[in-house]
Amino acid sequence: MQTREDIFNILRDALVELFELEPERVTLDANLYQDLEIDSIDAIDLIDHIKRQTGKKIAAEEFKAVRTVNDVVEAVFRLVNPAA
Asked: Which segments constitute the Carrier domain (predicted)?
């Protein structure tokens, strides 16, 4: 079982690697679109990366509600821990 902290660390590393962001910019409160300047194409890349890491795909409809890094962490947490 992955904790929210584990998921955040993996997600932060992915955002840094995929989008060349400075690690200190990636906080739980950071808005993906405004603070991190991620666009819709980047979001698709991120969904694909999460799928490769977890073996599970976040539904596009669920990802539309995501605004902050913490929202992504929560969505992934629910995906990998369905009983939680």
From this structure: 5-80
